[in-house]
Design a protein that fits this description.
Layout lengths: L12 H64 L3 H7 L5 E10 L2 E10 L14 H98 L23
Antiparallel strand pairs: 1-2
Helix pairs in contact: 1-3
Length: 248
């Protein structure tokens, strides 16, 4: 095992405990990120389906709105310049909100009406039905455009977040966790080797002690054979022999 395949640590019991904690944390993080990626993917697919449905409906609504505009022009004539001259502020406005999906903030746009209809009496002279129809169709088109903008913005945001989350999941699964496991295996192998060395050393020490004890026993038997009382050695404290005094 090369040093690049594992984390550079000194093999010890403390390092083993630390690596076990890091492995548990990495596995927990992988599980949470996997669940987050699944939740984001589920929402991503739902938004994609909604975008397709909205675009299909948008095509129908825009076709109907363009047709109603042609009918109104045929009945009333060109009324674009009249509308443009009288516009002072937008009646339909857009505001932004935030939606949270598995910790990811998604922008949500919604339209709302601000003020009264400036052209409520438009078409009173002629073409009133056509004007009302074109207003209704284009209001629906604006509503769908805002909804489509919200969906596509969320779609792009989720796409980027899902890519980042999947990269993190793959990095933890295929790089971080295997590296920690290899480091843990290295520490366990080194500790086992140390235990075997210590056991062998203790056996050698015990063997040497037994050899020394056997040699001492042989010497004791030899001295005993020579008549030396090795079983009851003399007690120096009980020796009654007195040395002569030394004069200086």
């Amino acid at each position: 095992m090369s040093g690049k395949d594992r984390i550079a640590v000194f093999p010890s019991r403390m390092a083993q405990t630390t690596m076990k904690s890091r492995l548990a944390g990495a596995q927990k993080g992988h599980s949470l990120l996997k669940k987050k990626a699944d939740a984001l993917t589920l929402r991503f697919r739902a938004i994609l389906k909604k975008i397709i449905e909205t675009k299909v409906l948008m095509g129908e609504v825009m076709k109907e709105a363009a047709f109603s505009a042609a009918q109104a022009k045929f009945v009333i004539g060109d009324f674009n310049h009249v509308v443009l001259q009288n516009v002072t502020k937008a009646q339909t406005k857009v505001r932004s909100k935030k939606d949270n999906v598995a910790g990811v903030t998604l922008p949500v746009f919604e339209h709302y009406g601000d003020g009264s209809d400036s052209y409520e009496l438009a078409g009173l002279a002629r073409g009133g039905q056509q004007v009302s129809k074109i207003k209704k169709n284009y209001a629906k088109a604006v509503e769908l455009l805002v909804e489509l903008a919200s969906l596509q913005t969320s779609f792009i945001t989720l796409d980027e977040v899902i890519k980042i989350t999947n990269r993190r999941v793959n990095a933890i699964e295929y790089v971080i966790i295997p590296r920690i496991e290899r480091t843990l295996q290295y520490i366990i192998t080194e500790l086992d080797e140390r235990e075997r060395e210590e056991f062998f050393r203790l056996k050698k020490v015990q063997g040497k002690k037994k050899a020394i004890k056997a040699i001492a026993e042989i010497k004791r038997l030899e001295l005993k054979a020579l008549g030396v009382d090795v079983d009851n050695p003399a007690d120096m404290l009980k020796d009654t022999h007195e040395d002569e005094d030394l004069l200086f």
